[in-house]
Amino acid sequence: MDLVTPDFGLIFWTLVTFLLLVFLLSKFAWKPILKMVNDREASIEDALKAAERARDEMKSLQADNEAVLKEAREERERILKEAREMKNKIVSDAKDIAIAEGEKAIASAKAAIAAEKASAIAELKNQAAVLSIEIAEKVLGKELSAENKQAEMISKMIDEVKFN
Amino acid sequence: MFKSLVRYTAAIALLFASFQLNAQDKDAHTATVDQSTTAEDHQVVSEDHNQTTESVESQKIHTSKEDSELNITELIMHHISDSHEWHFFDIDGQPYSLALPVIVYTKNGFSAFSSSVFHHNDNGEVVYTASNGDRFIKVHDIIYIASEKKNHEAWAEHGEDHKVTNAKPTIDISLTKNVVNLFLGVVVMLALFMGISRKYENGVPRGRASFIEPLVVFVRDDIALQNIGKKNYMRFTPYLLTLFFFIWINNILGLFPGGANLTGNIAFTMSLAALTLIIVNVNAKKEYWIHIFWMPGVPVWVRLMLAPIELVGVLTKPFALMIRLFANMTAGHIVILSLLSLTFIFKSLAIAPAAVALTLFIYIIKVLVAFLQAYIFALLTALFIGQAVEEHDHH
Fold first, then answer.
1. Which helix (H) or strand (E) holds B22?
2. Taking burial as the number of CB atoms within 10 A of a residue's CB, which of A141, B14, B89, B237 is the most buried?
3. What DSSP designation does B142 have?
4. CA distance B275 to chain A (A)
5. What pTM does this model have?
6. 3-class DSSP assignment, residue B162
7. Are residues B121 and B164 in the same domain?
8. Which of A7, A8, A26 is nearest residue B238 as measured by Cβ atoms?
9. A30: nearest CB among B81, B195, B238
10. Which residue, of B133, B149, B175, is where some domain finishes?
């Protein structure tokens, strides 16, 4: 029975030394070790997170680059297309203008020609009238001394002129 | 680390310098009073006595076969029980042992003296009279107050079953073999763990810290965190760490030749189990008590039935802790000593190799058990704390 009868002295010393140990080691051993371990774990976690962040940033940067590149390519395409369109437009515009100018020149030339023709005809008519009068004067001066003959002659001539 | 170990060892050596190493002749018939052997002022009332100071071990070699088994039982029981002297070995029947201090309190006051005053007598035949007049005898390594009259060579009264009926001192806080081993364990722990933060360079463990840190992290993560939970575990981790290392290191020290069976002593395990009981119940939350007295989720008559069972459970949990460590360590010591004694039981040298091989096998298992029991004690303590501080309802 001695074996299972607790001895007061040993209980006393066990409690005293153990509680003292709990106090001393908590203060001078466990707290510092746990703090070191926690700090290190925290720093490792931070480092891992930072690496993760850097990787994400890298990824987003790459994505950005790609987007910029794509945009630039699109821009180039657009500019080229615009330039092409511009060229075509300029060429066609020039063509149109040229055609219009030509037509205009032709029209004005035609008009000038018509006017010239009309004035030439008028001139010719005038000249013809003057000449005819002069001829008539000369002819008539001799032949038509009588008044009836003159009048007959004039009306006959006017009729002829009108018909022309 | 070695420097500080040497420092602590020197301090301990100084502490016990006054308690001299005793050697006494085995055929000594008269124990003359030798005042100079002890530091304290004391008188030894010595009588003629046939004290045989040879140890149990040397006895068994000379005794007949039917006695030998009994003697081996005695030898083993002697080894696993506490003692007032730290016995190392015998040479020519002369015991070499360290006499340890006795500190007792009676109604006459405190007395402190070396156990060497009893001259290795363990039958109550030598009486020591302290300066305050108290008279003490030692029987089977327990200090009693001596009887007035001499009774068959001894100053002790025996009851029917040969039990000593003398009064004991009111308080006996002697530094017994177990207590000295306890102090040794404390010294080892302080040497191992104090100033550990200086062993860190930029947060990286060096030297002994690199060996201790994984164990600390193991206790923190696998014992404290897993059983107590994220919210509360840091509060209990220092206690659990001390508990784990305290039991482990004392288990290991008990395995050294000459080491005491400290962790296999019921007083030691009871103290630690009592602390677990106190910590668990002091920190218990409302939910814990509700689950004990008024178990939710079951009919009322079941609740009434469960309440006393749960209430008993509060005590049986630490009680099981106490018994488990005690039984494991004591049983281990008994098995090792029994196997080693096989040679003497069979009185044949041919048995020796097998006995030694078996002992070695059990010894290695004991090294594992030393760790395992420390782990289990700390783990179960953490588990009980975890149950007590749990706040959410898990039904």
1. strand B21-22
2. B237
3. E
4. 9
5. 0.71
6. coil
7. yes
8. A26
9. B238
10. B175
Q: How many domains does chain A have?
A: 1
Q: Which residue of B has its CA nearest to A41?
A: B203
Amino acid B32: pLDDT:
38
The sign of the torsion formed by the CA atoms of B211, B214, B216, B218 equals negative
Q: d(Cα B360, Cα B29) in Å, to the nearest integer?
A: 40
Residue B97: beta bridge partners?
Answer: B22, B87
pLDDT at A142 over 80: no
Question: Within this chain, do residues B210 and B285 fall inside the same structural domain, yes or no?
Answer: yes
Angular region, B111: left φ>0, alpha ψ -120 to 50, beta rest = beta
Residues counted in chain A? 164
Rounded Cα distance between B369 and A18, Å, is 21
Residues β-bridged to residue B109: B106
Q: Does B187 share its domain with B294?
A: yes
Question: Burial letters for A14-38: b for 16+ Cβ neighbours within 10 Å, e otherwise?
Answer: bbebbeebbebbbebbbebbbebbe
| Separation CA B122–CA A10 (nearest Å) | 20
Listed in sequence order, the residues at least 6 apart from A129 whose beta carbon sits closer than 8 Å to its beta carbon are: A161
Chain A: residue nearest B214 by CA? A37
Q: What is the token pair recorded at B103?
A: 């500190």
Count: domains in chain B: 2
DSSP, residue by residue, B3-16:
HHHHHHHHHHHHHT
Top-confidence residue, B395 or B107: B107
The answer to which of A154-163, B54-63, B209-218, B229-238 has the lowest mean pLDDT is B54-63
Alpha helices by DSSP H, chain B: 2-15, 56-62, 65-80, 177-193, 208-218, 226-228, 233-255, 266-282, 286-293, 300-346, 351-389
User: Which chain B residue's Cα is nearest to A6?
Assistant: B267
Same domain, B298 and B371: yes
Mean pLDDT for B339-363 is 88
CA distance A89 to B252: 100
| pLDDT for A145 | 66
How far is Cα B132 from Cα B211, in angstroms, rounded to an integer?
A: 52
pLDDT number for residue B7:
62
Please check whether residue A160 lies inside any domain of the structure: no
Asked if the model's pLDDT at residue A120 lies above 80, the reply is yes
Q: Classify residue B10: in a domain, yes or no.
A: no
Range of the domain at B32: 22-55+85-175
Residue B347 token pair = 């009185």
Residue A93 lies in a domain: yes
Q: Does B180 touch chain A (CB under 8 A)?
A: no
| B213–A33 C-beta distance less than 8 A | yes
pLDDT in tens, B137-160: 888 888 888 888 787 777 888 877
Residue type, A138: K
Q: Residue A22 — pLDDT band, cuts 50, 70, 90? A: very high
pLDDT computed for residue B5 by the predictor: 61
Go through chain B and tell me how many residues it has: 395
